[in-house]
Design a protein that fits this description.
Elements lengths: L4 H29 L4 H21 L2 H15 L9 H15 L22 E4 L3 H12 L5 E3 L3 H10 L4 E5 L7 H9 L18 E4 L6 H9 L2 E5 L4 H12 L8 E5 L3 H13 L3 E5 L5 H8 L3 E4 L8 H9 L9 E5 L4 H9 L4 E4 L4 H23 L9 H18 L3 E8 L2 H8 L1 H18 L5 E6 L2 E7 L3 H15 L3 E2 L5 E2 L2 E7 L5 H17 L5 E3 L5
Parallel strand pairs: 1-2, 1-3, 3-4, 4-5, 6-7, 6-8, 8-9, 9-10, 16-17
Antiparallel strand pairs: 11-13, 11-16, 12-13, 14-15
Helix pairs in contact: 1-2, 2-3, 3-4, 16-17
Length: 543
């Protein structure tokens, strides 16, 4: 059946909407680094106006809503150039909505809104053609399209015609070190062996070697724009690296609590941090800190040393006595110049000491460095070491928190249990390393296919738990069935590849406690096991 002219037009604008959304997200990422310069704000406004026009012509209510709200919020920042924390929260939330795939069905029909897909291909130039073909096939299940090349001329022609999302290349492609030479030519370095660094490399490169790389080779790969060097073509590791390139979700802004009895100093710090895209909360009375800690949940505290009623060292000691805040970085910002007193203050719970007046660049550099390390530590504590998903404790914590949100906002929530089928046989017949590959691949698959606002955890062993906020039971069943079907075609374990399946149970929150909801999802999952495995079952709704 031929597609009607109106349908073709609709598809055309659908593509333009998603491309413009990607462009807007790219501009948003650059805005904070440019300290909210007036020209950058104008660029963002123009890009958003274009998105709104496309969304209106495509008749996409969700994108119209996001673009309209983004425009009104951003227009209020244009004159003073520095957003407030409230404006930053609103804009970040809108960008998060723009970047994520949506499971909820739209008002016009039964088609769920599509994710913003990756259009650029990944060029692969590998001597091992069998492994290259298998890797390309596995990448397709993650929405990544590979183009394979068997000779240098074809690869050069393709790069000259169109830059790919990334290049995966054998360092010895066709001959010793030829892969390094090819990349050096395209990254602006005349000789690969010269150990020169590429100036502004244009293409991310993943280098592969069938033998153990020397330190010199690793340095060459790095200087040629290599983002990773692999000595194995295991799909899971390579796809994980590629996923970092296509992740559209903007990084969540740092949340900084400013404690300073001087209103002018607190305002100075707030403006500097807001301009860098960080969300702040000011407290000028140290005795009010505890209430703000609980409501604001900061990732870092910027604190004056000398304040009436309670000095910074005393306050840091009290904060450190609470296990919830024991790892939160505390940075002193004070006029104290005595090095001994600075060191003594840091010994009592502070991570760093900045002397007033502080250069805004120094302040931002310190905050970003400490903040990044704090986030990494928090991730290590909350995440399962094998999969990178939430561990058992933290997925249950996420469920409790999201149940409160759902009850407060009167929104839906689904809880999902997933169990890999016949996993003991995988370990017994193929070994634990292959079993680990199956677990890691399923974790990556779930992370890539679900929204970034969903919560995915390794419940234990081969079991996974998923919290889907604001999703109907029908849509939860649909997306989990799609994931189940695609996962069943995925291969694990390299050349000795095997396939695997999972069984899934889903329960809709209808006022139950977290334990009751888990029990219902667990019952549905065992029903899936009983009915032959490799299927999704929904817990019968109770009115």
């Amino acid at each position: 059946m031929d597609i009607s002219k109106s349908e073709k037009l609709k598809q055309h604008f659908s593509t333009r909407v998603t491309h413009q959304a990607r462009h807007l997200l790219d501009l948003w990422r650059c805005l904070h680094d440019d300290q909210w310069q007036h020209e950058r704000i104008l660029d963002l406004l123009q890009a958003n106006e274009k998105l709104l026009r496309f969304a209106q012509r495509f008749d996409s209510p969700k994108y119209i809503q996001i673009a309209t709200q983004f425009q009104s919020t951003l227009a209020g920042i244009e004159n003073n150039n520095h957003p407030s924390s409230e404006q930053l929260k609103t804009l970040n939330d809108l960008m998060l909505q723009l970047s994520q795939g949506v499971l909820r069905r739209n008002d016009q029909g039964n088609q769920a809104e599509k994710m913003i897909v990756v259009k650029k291909p990944i060029y692969m130039a590998l001597n091992d053609s069998d492994n290259a073909i298998q890797l390309a096939q596995q990448m397709e299940y993650f929405g990544l399209r590979a183009e394979l090349f068997s000779n240098q001329d074809d690869l050069n022609h393709a790069i000259g015609k169109r830059h790919p999302l990334a290049i995966i290349i054998d360092i010895d492609f066709q001959e010793i070190d030829n892969g390094l030479t090819i990349i050096a030519q395209h990254q602006g370095v005349k000789e690969a062996g010269s150990m020169k660094t590429a100036v502004n490399p244009m293409i991310p490169v993943l280098f592969y070697s069938s033998h153990c790389m020397t330190l010199k080779q690793k340095l060459q790969c790095l200087r040629l724009g290599g983002i990773s060097s692999f000595e194995s073509l295991a799909p899971q590791a390579i796809i994980t690296q590629l996923e970092s390139l296509v992740n559209l979700v903007p990084e969540q802004p740092f949340r900084i609590l400013i404690v300073d009895d001087s209103k002018s100093q607190a305002l100075f710090a707030e403006k500097a941090l807001n301009a860098a895209g960080m969300i702040t909360e000011k407290v000028t009375d140290p005795m009010e800190v505890w209430n703000v800690l609980e409501s604001f949940q900061p990732e870092m505290i910027l604190m004056d040393m000398y304040m009436p009623g309670c000095n910074g060292v005393e306050l840091a000691k009290v904060i450190r006595q609470d296990k919830h805040y024991i790892n939160i970085p505390i940075i002193y910002l004070s006029g104290e110049e005595d090095k001994e007193r600075q060191l003594a203050a840091m010994a009592e719970g502070g991570e760093d000491f900045l002397t007033k007046p502080v250069d805004p660049r120094h302040l931002l550099s310190t905050i970003r460095t400490r903040g990044a390390r704090a986030r990494e530590l928090s991730q290590l504590i909350a995440r399962d070491s094998l999969t990178g998903l939430y561990n058992h404790t933290h997925i249950l914590k996420a469920l409790d928190e999201q149940l409160k949100v759902a009850q407060r906002n009167n929104t839906s929530l689904c809880f999902v249990m997933v169990d890999i089928d016949h996993f003991k046989q995988v370990n017994d017949n193929h070994g634990h390393p292959i079993g680990d590959d199956v677990i890691k691949n399923l974790a990556l698959f779930l992370s890539q296919r679900l929204r970034k606002t969903d919560f995915i955890g390794r419940y234990g062993g081969e079991e996974f738990a998923i919290v889907l906020p604001n999703v109907s039971l029908e849509d939860a069943e649909s997306i989990m069935n799609e994931i189940r079907n695609n996962f069943s075609h995925l291969l694990h374990g390299g050349l000795a590849a095997i396939s695997s399946t999972f069984s899934c149970g889903i329960a809709l929150h209808r006022g139950q406690s977290s334990n009751e909801l888990i029990e219902l999802a667990d019952q549905a999952m065992y029903l899936a096991k009983r009915d032959g495995r490799n299927c999704v079952k929904v817990c019968p709704a109770k009115d």
